[in-house]
Amino acid sequence: MALAHPNIALIKYWGKRDEGLVLPVTDSLSMTLDVYPTTTRVRLGEGAGPDEVVFNGVSASGEALRRITVFLDLVRERAGRTQRAVVETRNTVPTGAGLASSASGFAALAVAAAAAYGLRLDARELSRLARRGSGSASRSLFGGFALWHSGAGTASLEEADAVSYAEPVAAADGLDPALVVAVVNAGPKEVSSRAAMRQTVATSPLYGPWAASSAADLAEMRAALVRGDLEAVGEIAERNALGMHATMLAARPAVRYLSPATVTVLDAVVELRRAGVAAYATMDAGPNVKVLCRRADAARVADAVGAVVGASSVVVAGPGPGARLLDGGDS
Ligand SMILES: Nc1ncnc2c1ncn2[C@@H]1O[C@H](COP(=O)(O)OP(=O)(O)OP(=O)(O)O)[C@@H](O)[C@H]1O
Ligand SMILES: C[C@@](O)(CCOP(=O)(O)OP(=O)(O)O)CC(=O)O
């Protein structure tokens, strides 16, 4: 059994250079959370044949099953094994809601499947493997802050594949961050992150400029983390996320994940700043808002966003651990 937590990108991954290898256009940087764990167990069946997947207690079918089977095929190929797998996975995070379920999901699956098929991989190789399931999963192998290298700048896709993994990045001890999650809508999105980023790269005139500016955002973000400058970390994260959403809004046809309630939460975040609280918003491909603040301010931020979405729809997260095997056994 493997355990992994979602991660929320402060510098977003949005857009692939290669779909098959899941190679991103840009580097990205995230914080792994200490809430919403996914647990995944992989057992091997007798012979070859279709994999069986139980997802949150229900037999999986369609795209969710297909993505897991494609991933297991990759693991089998690397291990030189052919047995089918029986997978049981359970998310505590809402699935497909823009709260990084694919990150915790494929990080846990990578760890559990590698163990079940006898692949001995270190954290870096597990990160490369998890990337093939879902790009953002590469970062959930690591706790705290993690940087996923795009591999751009290498001469070939093979070389990019070899160096596109995540690794931990330094942050000042004094930073003491929290991410206050305001759940606007826990339901699954209509358009997956995968499809939306494909459409954005293919059609949005704003995509190129955002990707170019993201490199500068990343360099500034790393320096701000090392300084422990939460205001700068937050400002950079907020502009990077809003810029990502701008690229989607300019896609043809537009992709819009932000809802009226999202914008009301964003207003509450601006109000908090006016009142002197360092609070900054980031959104993934969904309507839900994550507010970066100091841990000491988290209760105040939770109250303010709870007034919009309801107190029971607010979860306060801190930096969490990397993915790991729970039982040390063969699954
Ligand atoms: N535990 C899991 N095991 C395997 N696959 C999962 C798991 N959880 C989610 N997924 C896959 O990830 C898909 C959702 O991914 P998607 O990236 O669209 O949304 P998200 O991760 O919730 O949002 P975002 O990436 O914007 O934060 C699901 O439909 C399913 O295919
Ligand atoms: C907005 C994001 O959350 C997009 C995540 O996209 P995915 O990692 O879910 O996409 P695939 O690689 O196609 O599975 C930003 C981020 O997590 O960096």
Automatic annotation (TrEMBL):
Q: What GO molecular function annotation could you give as one example from this UniProt entry? A: diphosphomevalonate decarboxylase activity
Which residue intervals define the domain Mvd1 C-terminal in the entry? 180-310
- Signal peptide range equals none
Q: Which Gene3D superfamilies match?
A: 3.30.230.10, GHMP kinase, C-terminal domain
Does the keyword Lipid metabolism feature in the UniProt annotation?
yes
Q: What is its EC number?
A: 4.1.1.33
The UniProt keywords, alphabetically, are: ATP-binding, Lipid biosynthesis, Lipid metabolism, Lyase, Nucleotide-binding
Question: Which of the seven top EC classes does this enzyme belong to?
Answer: lyase
Q: Where is the Diphosphomevalonate decarboxylase-like N-terminal domain?
A: 4-153
Which superkingdom heads the taxonomic lineage of this protein's source? Bacteria
The UniProt entry, under Pfam families, shows: MDD_C, MVD-like_N
UniProt family annotation: Belongs to the diphosphomevalonate decarboxylase family.
Q: What is this protein called?
A: diphosphomevalonate decarboxylase
Annotated source species: Streptomyces flavalbus
Gene (name only): mvaD
